[in-house]
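Good morning,

Both structures are done.
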Amino acid sequence: MLKLRVLTIESVAVDQEVEELTVQTANGVTGILPSHSALLTKLEPGVFRFRAKGQEVRMVGSSGSLEVIGDKVTILIDEVLPIGEIDVERARAERESLLNVLERRDMNVYELQDARKKLKNVNAKISAVE
């Protein structure tokens, strides 16, 4: 078993034993099983899955980081939601708003990076439910 902890700035979203975990990393989809080698990697926005007590749980998360040490897995992430809690209409409206922001020509590089990051996160939410 793996001890999975998913932490946001605001809360501990997940703290339980799981049989396996699948995440979207910068290098593609990565599966984590017990006795996995040590790993520190960047997470990309998208769906991650884990199996606990024989049940698959699917959540969508923003970018973040993942650390595996022994059978302890820690995910540090800005935002995470169970798939069933995604308000797809709100996410679509947010995407339209961000696309309008990205069309502006008066943004500095930091505002542009922030808008792109937010757009990747909202696209992950929409993709998770479509």
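Second structure follows.
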Amino acid sequence: MVRLTAALVSDLNPGNNHAFTSLRKLDVRGRELDDIDDLNFYTELSRLDLSQNALSSLEAIAANYELSWLKASDNAIDSLAPLRRLAKLRVLTMQRNKLVDLGGLGSLPALQALVLNDNAIADVMLLPKLPLLNTLVLSNNRIPRLPSNLGSFPLLRKLSVAHNELTEFPSLQSCWQLQELRLAHNRIPHIPREKIGSLGQLTVLDVGYNLLQEVSEVEGLSRCATLLLLLLLLPAASAARARTDRLPLLPQPAAPAAAERRGQRVARGRRGGGDGGAGGAAGAEAAERPRHAVHGSLPQPQGRQSGEEPRAGGGAGVPGHGGVHRQGQHCAGQKLGAGAESERR
């Protein structure tokens, strides 16, 4: 049994003779603590890191009302109930614990980022209204469906529910500010156009490794002029068609350097062939062709991905999670926009 004591706190803050009521930041990660009862004396704590310990409960900080940033990842905590009265909490990160639901979380009016990936959560239907929430990360859990009240999060910019058990595309029509949506590695069979057509601010969409069969499932994205990255990995059965189908997204401007190179190739073709010849015609077509997203098929992966860190007040600035496939690892995503110089085939 390892207990958090005033002596340990003093050792972690050398040269500071903080009274219990004045300490505002405390980092005790990796100390193998299983008893933090003395934290209730530190009433002015606003930032607390309890990661990588042996905690099974957060009851000891239930009255630390000044907390605005709390990280308690890599413990054995099974309930969020002790946090329900922390009205000033803005960032809550509890990856890799033993949470099974969101019961008891209560309404946290100041919460902006909620990161709960890599738990055993199977029920999120009790997710309360969080009016300032901009980041919600629930990847690597056991969630079969999302609650209908996601529309009550008007500031939501990042939603990650990759590596779960979803069987339908979530209702996000009221999430007008959503910029990053990650739903890879679920069981979603199709994407209703009415559920995706209103996401006009979307820049990243990852729906790889679902049960989607046709590229046409995401035709509603033609309204998303801001889309920069689309990952749509179709099953092997559709491989032949997936390599030839193209999604007609809005044309994106080419990068100046790429456009200049294409123009030079067109000019050379015309000089070499009079009216352009075969090479000149091909170059002109390539130079004027609008950019599209190209989709491919991949084998199923061998394992689940994990690891995601929040950025305070970050929204879409939170690093990606679960379903981002790096180059050299069978990535079939296509980047669109000014920086794209080539298409994947």
